Amino acid sequence: MRRANNMIWGVILIIASIVLLLNSLGLTDISIFFSGWWTLFIIIPCFVGLLTGNDKTSNLIGLGIGVVLFLACRDAIAFDVLWKFTIPAIIALFGIKMIYKGVFGGKSTEIMRIHQANGVEHKSVFAAFSGQTVDYDHEVFRGAELTAVFGGVKCDLRNAVFEEDVVINTCSVFGGIDIFLPDDVNIKVDTNSLFGGVDTKKHENSCDNRYTVYLNSTCMFGGVDIK
What we know:
Layout: H1 2-24, H2 40-52, H3 56-73, H4 79-104, H5 107-117, E1 123-128, E2 131-135, E3 143-149, E4 152-156, E5 166-173, E6 176-180, E7 185-194, E8 197-199, E9 211-220, E10 223-226
Parallel strand pairs: 1-3, 2-4, 3-5, 4-6, 5-9, 6-10, 7-9, 8-10
């Protein structure tokens, strides 16, 4: 996804530079800063993510937001209509998706139910306008709840002991969460993202790894970095 995104933005920058050059030479009079031009920074990444990414729902919602904002900037839609109907619809879609996952969830839901039945507690870390660090040094890891709101959380699992598949639930709102994993575990991500996301490029899964970390992430103007 990153390669495709970079290629598209590269093409756009080249076209913009050509237009600026032709304008400076007096050969053309094209304005690249048209009304609503900034919405392209929402529309293009979401469109690329819709084609190449795993989180189709979030990218589709982001694309819809970008298109509606563009139409509003072009006076095709009134902004008061935008706030009255579009925003509640988006929030409802996220809610429906989260309920669906809670009822019909896969392996991560099964793990959570087993842990709850057996009384297994997951460590909860919350950072608001601050930073928090949790280090599982030679400690058995059963799962965690990580939340960052205008802050940051660092969870180091490189020396943790894994005895089974585990679940990590994260929520980042205008914040960031860094999770350091050992090389001998896999990561599987399920995310609800709005102007944010999960980056797993620095960690490689292997079919030889015995255990898997199931990451359920909600990102709103924030992100999770798997290292």
